[in-house]
Amino acid sequence: MHPALEAGLVRAAEALGQPRDPWWVIGSAAVVLHGAETEVADIDLLLSERDAQGLLSQPGCMRIRTEPSPLFRSALFARWDGAGLPIELMAGLEVANAGAWVPVQPQTRVVVQVAGASVHVPDRAELGEILEMFGRPKDLARRTLLAD
């Protein structure tokens, strides 16, 4: 695992400490945590709004108001720099699917140990479903990595 990815994952897990709600790493970092090799530019952290609010006090973490996207929207979106790789916090994430907004709310939770920290990801099958739901070429390519 790349040192910056490891550092970011450990920092996120430590900062969350005892969260009130379940959280997950999704996207490319989760694919790597399932043992596949892919490039990781940032860590996508899916969590509740109240737990995300708690992380906004971390140095380098800032809420971001984004332009409306036809594909994704979040009740809260923030970027946290200075923790290894950039971490994107997403609370209330929804994806456009067949003309409707669908919540991204994993039902499975697998714990992966990273340098002594417990990091949570959806199980392999559910992560693949999430990537397919996102539907972008990079997500579909990562989904195929999970099938190998």
Which features does this protein show?
single chain, 148 residues, alpha+beta, Beta Polymerase, domain 2, 5-stranded mixed β-sheet, 5 helices, 34% helix, globular
Q: Which CATH class is shown?
A: Alpha Beta
Low-confidence stretches: none
Oligomer state of the chains in this structure: single chain
Q: How many DSSP helices?
A: 5
Output mean pLDDT: 92
Order of helices and strands: HEHEHEEEEEEEEHH
The dominant shape is globular
Q: Which percent range fits the helix content?
A: 25-40%
* Strand coverage percent: 25-35%
How are the strands of the biggest sheet laid out side by side? 1-2-6-5-3
**Biggest β-sheet description:** 5 strands, mixed
Overview of this structure, please?
The protein is α+β, with helices and mostly antiparallel strands and 148 residues long. The protein has a single domain (3-147), classed as Beta Polymerase, domain 2, CATH 3.30.460.40. The chain has helices spanning 3-16, 27-33, 49-55, 124-134, 137-147; strands at 24-26, 43-47, 61-63, 72-73, 76-80, 87-91, 94-97, 100-103, 110-114, 117-121. It has a 5-stranded mixed sheet. Helix 4 (124-134) runs antiparallel to helix 5. The chain starts with a helix and ends with a helix.
Quick gist of this model?
The protein is of the alpha+beta class and 148 residues long. The protein has five helices and ten strands; from the N terminus they run αβαβαββββββββαα. Helix 4 packs antiparallel against helix 5 (137-147).
